[in-house]
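Batch 3, record 17
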Amino acid sequence: MPELPEVETTLRGIKPHILNQPIKNVRIRQANLRWPIPLHLVKTLKNQTIYQITRRAKYLLLKTSAGTLLMHLGMSGSLRIVIDAAPASKHDHFEIEFAQKVLRFTDPRRFGAVLWISDPLLDHPLLKKLGPEPLSKKFSGAYLWEQAQRKKMAVKPFLMDNQIVVGVGNIYATESLFAAGIHPQLAAQKISAARYETLVLCIKDILRKAIKKGGTTLKDFVGSDGKPGYFRLELKAYGRSGLSCLRCKATLKTIRLGQRSTVYCSGCQS
DNA sequence: AAATTCTCCTGAAGGC
DNA sequence: TGCCTTCAGGAGAATT
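Prediction for the assembled complex:
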């Protein structure tokens, strides 16, 4: 599931292959993703060069002198570097062809996006309301506690709100709350500043470890080299409902919070 | 303003 | 075997 570690893994994987390489061709096979892929990209990107690749939240930003290509992997998307031009398959919706290599976007469920931004980046509606990066200094226990005041919603959906902090989706929110020993259903405003300090440390630690492992692959996610991420092996709560807690042996439970399944341990999360 | 619900989509899994 | 239902989920949009 592409959350921040998976997007970061993708960024690091594709960057050395496509940076400063002239674009020879662009192909749109299926424009109907979350929003339609702008058809003008075929002409707009031809002969352009991507001179910078960055990530903001779960968005990849590929900059050219004509504008910025924004890509989102949705929940089943992946970007791969294809060298021997293997034939495209059913879910290969978009690709950028360079002299030696092809950057191919694959997304079975089509929740992903490929968009074009020609205006200043920060004005874009998808980017301008985003909260801080979780691995930045600005994302601290004090910040999170401050944001939580007067928020009655449960802490888990609070953590997954992109205006509070970006990049923390269902897997890493579940894992972080387990690591911090915080019950996911607790009202955000009822959690102490000290516990938010702990939670922030857990979030940063888990995200960093997941990036080191190349992200988490549940089903579709692969890195740019086509290989899965191995953080799934490290998951202690997500996907372990009904199994016994690795810390206290109690049976892990599942509840629904904000339409998302949430696994927690009633023995050591309170 | 804050919180909840709906929506897009496909494939896997379960029921009968 | 095969059809139908249910579920998974990122996050913007719509609704309460």
